[in-house]
UniProtKB/TrEMBL annotation:
Coiled-coil ranges (or none): none
EC primary class: oxidoreductase
Gene Ontology biological-process entries: siroheme biosynthetic process
Annotated organism of origin: Halapricum hydrolyticum
Pfam families in the record: NAD_binding_7 (PF13241)
Cited SUPFAM superfamilies: NAD(P)-binding Rossmann-fold domains (SSF51735), Siroheme synthase middle domains-like (SSF75615)
Keywords linked to the UniProt accession: NAD, Oxidoreductase, Porphyrin biosynthesis
Protein name according to UniProt: precorrin-2 dehydrogenase
Superkingdom to which the source organism belongs: Archaea
Reactions mediated catalytically: precorrin-2 + NAD(+) = sirohydrochlorin + NADH + 2 H(+)
GO MF annotation list: ferrochelatase activity; precorrin-2 dehydrogenase activity
Record EC number: 1.3.1.76
InterPro entries for this protein: Met8-like, NAD(P)-bd_dom_sf, Sirohaem_synthase_N
Pathway: Porphyrin-containing compound metabolism; siroheme biosynthesis; sirohydrochlorin from precorrin-2: step 1/1
């Protein structure tokens, strides 16, 4: 399996199953997609901004739900494996992305796994065991999360620096060297994490003088 980032803004996601797992998936996707959760009952959990529809479709009724909602991705998170299988089949027939929450290990071709995630926007890290051991993904995610201090600020800062360098007369090799040096600079990252943006800019100027840019 290959990790990809997919932008779901403007898309719909349909979740079958309103238990804790359906809620977790709904919350995740509701950050940017319009999410609908179909279930006969809903756990006392945070579903983000998802719309809840109370219904218990049997396997034969699943395709109709998908055709009505027109999602880009479908999640099968019920506790009924026949319903989950019908969700997977109907999604696949329609060429939609499908995440099946009740399967691990060997995956059907074309299936989607949700990784454990650590974020320091705009930096995002996903960890997966390709379905084999989700608890391991969660532990590794916690370890990575502890290392992300200042990562988001650094990415935002270096992104803006790229634009500023485009306005300077700097050759492309020097540009790359400066960006790599700033990205790797512990002191600039620490200053940014502490909100000392001016001092981070001083650090950049020092590096630029070294490359005579
Ligand atoms: C294949 C996958 C499908 C998918 O994409 O959903 C899947 C499948 C299954 N999970 C099961 C169990 C658990 N899942 C978790 C936790 C998480 N599971 C997540 C993802 C995935 N789980 C995908 C693979 C990810 C990868 O590649 O590593 C995370 C990372 C992301 C998320 O779900 O958002 C999230 C961490 C969230 C976070 O902390 O952020 C815990 C730990 C806990 O709850 O504390 C347990 C109990 C311990 C255990 O059993 O290992 C079971 C058995 C159910 C049963 O037997 O009842 C199945 C089905 C099966 O094994 O058949
Ligand atoms: N991916 C993951 O991280 C995990 C996956 N699982 C798997 O995911 C499944 C769901 O986990 P939980 O939320 O903990 O289970 P749960 O049993 O608490 O919730 C299942 C939900 O599905 C609903 N449901 C039942 N029939 C339905 C139908 N025909 N249509 C729509 N909804 C229906 C139920 O009303 C309930 O709200 C489990 O059966 C298990 O196989 C379990 C733990 C973690």
């Amino acid at each position: 399996m290959i990790p990809l980032l997919h932008d779901f803004s403007g898309s719909r996601v349909l979740v079958f199953g309103g238990g804790p797992v359906g809620a977790r998936k709904a919350r995740r996707f509701a950050r940017e997609a319009e999410v609908v959760v179909v279930s006969p009952s809903f756990a006392d959990a945070d579903f983000g901004d998802a719309t809840r529809k109370r219904a218990a479709p049997d396997p034969a009724e699943v395709p109709d739900w998908i055709d009505r909602i027109e999602p880009a991705l479908v999640v099968a998170a019920t506790d009924d494996s026949e319903v989950n299988a019908a969700v997977e089949d109907a999604a696949r027939e329609r060429g939609l992305l499908v995440n099946r929450a009740d399967h691990s290990g060997e995956r059907a071709p074309g299936s989607v796994v949700l990784p454990a995630m650590a974020r320091s926007d705009p930096v995002v890290v996903g960890v997966s065991t390709q379905g084999h051991a989700p608890a391991v993904s969660a532990v590794l995610r916690d370890e990575i999360d502890a290392q992300l201090d200042g990562a988001g600020e650094l990415a935002t800062f270096v992104g803006a620096l790229r634009d500023r360098l485009d306005e300077r007369d700097i050759d492309s090799r020097d540009r790359r060297d400066v960006l790599a040096a700033v990205a790797a600079s512990e002191s600039i990252r620490t200053r940014l994490a502490e909100g000392e943006t001016d001092r981070a800019h001083d650090g950049v100027e020092k590096l630029l003088r070294k490359t005579k840019a």
